[in-house]
Design brief:
The chain has helices spanning 7-20, 30-38, 40-44, 51-60, 71-77, 87-116, 126-135, 140-150, 160-170; strands at 28-29, 68-69, 124-125, 157-158. It is mainly alpha-helical and 171 residues long. The chain has a two-stranded antiparallel ribbon with strand order 1-2. It has a two-stranded antiparallel ribbon with strand order 3-4. The chain is elongated and about 65 Å long. Keywords: Calcium, Repeat.
Length: 171
């Protein structure tokens, strides 16, 4: 498991494993493994796997023995840990993964913004912000300060960019 260094990657790998463990027997067959590597799951981790690379991973693991792998074996075979992929492949995958996560975060934040922009006018006013923050246990005085600190153009409301800064200081 040398290539997996953080909990987020491990959690993501567990999800990928579960998706392709179709019969929930805690094993993935050779065919399922090929689907994992050549599918969107591999792309989700930032990898663009070639069939030849997949064949080398399967060959190295000697998958012909029983035709199935456990989660621990899967972790050894995933692109981040397989020796068939050189450092440049891992570096590119890491960059792709970071861009993918950034896009997900932007989509998430836009959804939060839209959710709290109750009147849909493109701004979060003092009343909308108060409703949000009181539900998280903030006091009126704290709310006033947060809004003042993040309302950079002093118009009494938060636009999307101001909201991103505001949200980062409330969570």
């Amino acid at each position: 498991m040398a290539g997996i260094v953080d909990a987020a990657t491990l959690k993501r790998s567990e999800k990928v494993f579960k998706v392709f463990d179709l019969n929930d027997d805690k094993m993935i067959s050779n065919e399922e493994l090929a689907v994992v590597f050549l599918s969107a799951a591999s792309h989700r981790m930032g990898y663009r796997i070639k069939t030849e690379q997949l064949e080398k991973v399967v060959e190295r693991m000697n998958m012909g023995k029983n035709g199935e792998i456990t989660f621990d074996e899967f972790l050894q075979a995933i692109p981040g840990n397989a020796t068939e992929f050189d450092a440049s492949v891992h570096r590119k995958a890491s960059v792709r993964n970071k861009f993918s996560e950034a896009e997900e975060n932007k989509t998430y934040l836009r959804g939060i913004f839209n959710q709290y922009d109750a009147d849909g006018n493109g701004f979060i006013d003092h009343n909308e912000a108060t409703t949000i923050l009181k539900s998280f246990g903030f006091e009126e005085k704290e709310i006033d300060k947060l809004i003042k600190d993040h309302d950079t153009n002093n118009d009494g409301k938060l636009d999307y960019e101001e909201f991103i800064s505001f949200w980062g200081h409330t969570h």
